[in-house]
Amino acid sequence: MKRYKKEENGKLEVGQILYTKRFALTLDRSLCKGCELCSLVCPRGAISLVPVEGGDGKAVAPLVDVDENLCDFHGICAVVCPFSAIRITVNGDGELPAVKSKVFPTLSRDIEVRAEKCPPGCKKCEETCPLGIVSVRESDAGTVVDIQKELCAGCQICWMECPADAIEVGKFIEGAIHIDRKLCPDGCKSCLDVCPVNALAVDADSKVFAKDINCIYCGACVSVCPAEGALRVERTAVRHSPVNSGAWNRGLQKLTSAGGLARELGAGRADRARAAVKSLELAEVDKDGGK
């Protein structure tokens, strides 16, 4: 077995080479926003955030680093990354072993585009998308709106700014962001500097406030806040595909509040109860000869 780590062309790659399989994790730094989600859910502590010195008086998001000797290449980090910055390959093919083995779900990226409602020439969604993943063009058949859905973090800005309600975007992480403005250093805007979706702003008193409707609760702001306790992100729910797994529950415990985990477990118990009732109903039908 051989493990390696390399960084080139803006990408960090760690890998493991076995006799019959080659595992690799690739982090695309052009997509990574230095948030905390991947480091939170990694069960082996292989992912860390490395502080970066800011320039021009602005804060810079930390660099994500991966320990090649600890990574198990299950891809849990890739599942929760809001920006799809992490990719796992097995023998060169994209694969998420944690999802394939049904121990982890996929996140629900619900995006609906009704291009027929777009006003001719309108490019509001393209102009306001903070991640630059929306493009609008005109064709013989009408307006075409292209969204790179796998890169959408669910900030909903395009939806909020659309004058015709032609786009609808669902969040896959729900929560709240808490700012204790008494603890914020005067004039500090570090959190604004690194927020990837412009969900933070300053008021007339130069104090930071959060636009919760656009926040994706990634925690990038928390990692650069210089005042302990001034900024806190609470995740209360994660929308995902069905799964029943202890590994997912442990990951969810790291991501969400205690209340969020309780709701998840409660929903799971309710789903299992409904399934059990359905099975009993089907058994009764079979016993009665299908009547």
- Order of strands in the sheet with most strands: 1-2-3-6-7
Q: What is the CATH topology descriptor of the largest domain? A: Alpha-Beta Plaits
Number of individual domains: 4
Give the CA-CA distance, first to last residue: 60 Å
CATH class of the largest domain: Alpha Beta
Proportion of residues in β-strands: 25-35%
Largest sheet: 5 strands, antiparallel
Proportion in helices: 25-40%
Radius of gyration: 22 Å
What is the β-strand count?
15
Low-confidence stretches: 267-285
Query: Number of DSSP helices?
Result: 9
- Quickly give the structural class: alpha+beta
Describe the structure.
- With 291 residues, this protein is of the alpha+beta class.
- The chain has four domains: 2-100, Alpha-Beta Plaits, CATH 3.30.70.20; 111-169, Alpha-Beta Plaits; 173-238, 2-Layer Sandwich (Alpha-Beta Plaits); 262-291.
- Helices cover 25% and strands 29% of the residues.
- The protein is built from nine helices and 15 strands.
- It has helices spanning 37-41, 76-80, 97-100, 124-128, 157-161, 190-194, 220-224, 246-255, 258-287, and strands at residues 2-8, 11-17, 22-28, 47-55, 58-66, 86-90, 93-94, 111-113, 134-139, 142-147, 167-169, 173-179, 200-202, 208-210, 231-238.
- Strands 1-2-3-6-7 form a five-stranded antiparallel sheet.
- The longest helix has 30 residues, at 258-287.
- 33% of the residues are buried.
- Residues 267-285 have low confidence and may be disordered.
